[in-house]
Design a protein that fits this description.
The complex is a heterodimer of chains A (about 110) and B (about 110). In chain A, β4 and β5 form a beta hairpin. Chain A is mostly beta strands. The radius of gyration of chain A is 13 Å and the shape is globular. Helix content of chain A is about 0%, strand content about 50%. Chain A has no helices and 11 strands. In chain A, strands 2, 4, 5, 6, 9, 10 and 11 form a 7-stranded mixed sheet that branches. In chain A, strands 1-3-8-7 form a 4-stranded antiparallel sheet, with no helix packed on it. Chain B is an all-beta fold and about 110 residues long. Chain B has one domain: Immunoglobulins (Immunoglobulin-like, Sandwich). Chain B contains no helices and 9 strands. In chain B, the strands form 2 sheets. A 5-stranded mixed sheet of chain B has the order 1-9-8-3-4, with no helix packed on it. In chain B, a hairpin with a 5-residue loop joins β6 and β7. At the A-B interface, β4, β6, β9 and β10 of A face β3 and β4 of B.
Amino acid sequence: DSGVTQTPKHLITATGQRVTLRCSPRSGDLSVYWYQQSLDQGLQFLIQYYNGEERAKGNILERFSAQQFPDLHSELNLSSLELGDSALYFCASSVGPEYDGELFFGEGSRLTVL
Amino acid sequence: LAKTTQPISMDSYEGQEVNITCSHNNIATNDYITWYQQFPSQGPRFIIQGYKTKVTNEVASLFIPADRKSSTLSLPRVSLSDTAVYYCLVGGGSGNTGKLIFGQGTTLQVKP
């Protein structure tokens, strides 16, 4: 158990809909990272937050947005969903703003868009 | 962040030693080298990290030559449960920001 909690574990929805994925980082970790992993694809970095502020941005679509709240949990919002958005979405956390060598990943949220 | 190149896949048999090499020609002075393991439908898990020479822990060894342009993850006496994807990640140290980009990883298949 990494200490990172993601909900929901599974989500099935239709094209055009909007969903919210939630992540609670490990106790004491201030950074949260979001990754997308499609079938047979590697981990695609989406965005990083540190202590409530956006720290780094990857290939995140404009239809996607994220935020980190004062209690340090983070939410990834996916809107106008398309079939291609079906993927595993991972959240990871670490202590500081800069990568210090170890990310702790959650179990992921599997999104299926029909 | 330095780009990494790894073999797409490797096969091995139970009990053998497996070595997976990662190339990172443009590694920066303050970059660390970290390896992660990922099982299907699970999040990646930290295996080992090093800066130079050799690092060993209870599950693996990491060999880094003097020029640090490559690194080799060594898994001793693999078992079927070591079948997974292994990612090499280069970065970290002061002054590094996010955009932690994982490469395609190496899919290791261990056969009985």
